[in-house]
Write a structure and sequence with these properties.
The chain is α/β, with parallel strands linked by helices. It has one domain: NAD(P)-binding Rossmann-like Domain (Rossmann fold), CATH 3.40.50.720. Helix content is about 45%, strand content about 15%. It is built from 8 helices and 7 strands; from the N terminus they run E-H-E-H-E-H-E-H-E-H-E-H-H-H-E. It has a 7-stranded parallel β-sheet, sandwiched between helices. Helix 1 packs across helix 8, helix 3 runs parallel beside helix 4 and helix 4 runs parallel beside helix 5. The relative contact order is 0.16. The structure holds NADP nicotinamide-adenine-dinucleotide phosphate.
Length: about 240
């Protein structure tokens, strides 16, 4: 299937490894001109070289860093036709572990970051009459996970935000969707200290996912073919989520 995005520009944040990298790799393979954003310079440059992307070094954890990312990305590829909003996950916590400062940090990291990226790049897409936005969230947005309070709360808010925006811009050629990873084998996943054998046994597919399985879904949602899919939150989870 030709996704018909050859020559489109794409910006993928958190793109040097894991799910962002897999999404960037899939988009690059389809012929998009991709820029990837991350903090670790060596890893960023190696990843960019591997998938023929443009490296953009920025720290997305606060507003100043996000605005710097916007400027540097525009300088690198212009306003992107395709935007994949993704970053590192927040710290694990039960509600008893959370603090006002922790909430502010997590809100900046996930929620305000998403708003800044949308504020910067949505209008140029509308003006062009074509755009694809995918936000990588988590199955925790719909099925809260023990010990991931910040993620549970903030990702659900992001779904409300982007579902509303999708409806507002649906007549402009711009689609906005969320992709919800289940348990996918990345550094983030191995760093959570979970018993991954037990996790695999709890998933109907009996295994964790591989990053390219999610990257291919992202690339499809960013394609011409997916023009009529918007305002959705789509899981890539081996059957983990049970809601009908
Ligand atoms: N893997 C899963 O199964 C899973 C499940 C549910 C939800 N998620 C969520 O999906 C997202 C991606 O997860 P992942 O597993 O791909 O994580 P990962 O393997 O840790 O990769 C995170 C990427 O984001 C970059 N990054 C992190 N913090 C950043 C910052 N402040 N500024 C700029 N770049 C930053 C990292 O590079 P640098 O560190 O060099 O900046 C890296 O490229 C996370 O929000 C995670 O919580 C993942």
């Amino acid at each position: 299937m030709d996704l018909n995005i050859n020559g489109r520009t794409a910006l993928v944040t958190g793109g040097s490894k894991g799910l962002g990298y897999a999404s960037a790799a899939a988009l690059s393979q389809e012929g998009a001109k991709v820029a990837i954003v991350a903090r670790n310079e060596a890893m960023l440059h190696k990843a960019a070289e591997t998938i023929d992307a443009v490296p953009v070094m920025a720290d997305l954890s606060d507003r100043a860093g996000v605005l710097a990312c916007v400027d540097k990305s525009r300088a690198a590829i212009g306003n992107p036709d395709i935007l994949v909003i993704n970053t590192g996950g927040p710290a694990p916590a039960t509600f008893a572990d959370t603090t006002p400062e922790g909430w502010r940090t997590a809100a900046d990291q996930l929620f305000h970051f998403t708003i800044e990226m949308l504020s910067a790049f949505l209008d140029p897409m509308k003006a062009k009459g074509w755009g694809r936005i995918v936000v990588i969230t988590s199955f925790a947005a719909e099925e809260p996970v023990a010990n991931l309070l910040y993620s549970n709360a903030l990702r659900a808010g992001i779904h409300g935000l982007i579902n509303s925006i999708a409806a507002e811009v649906a007549g402009t050629g711009v689609t906005v969707n969320a992709v919800m990873p289940g348990f996918i084998l990345t550094d983030r996943m191995t760093g959570l200290g979970l018993d991954l054998d037990k996790v695999a046994a709890s998933i109907p597919a009996k295994r964790l996912g591989q990053p390219p399985e999610l990257g291919d879904l992202v690339a499809f949602l960013c394609s011409d073919r997916a023009a009529y899919i918007t305002g959705q939150a789509i899981a890539c989870d081996g059957g983990l989520m049970k809601g009908i």
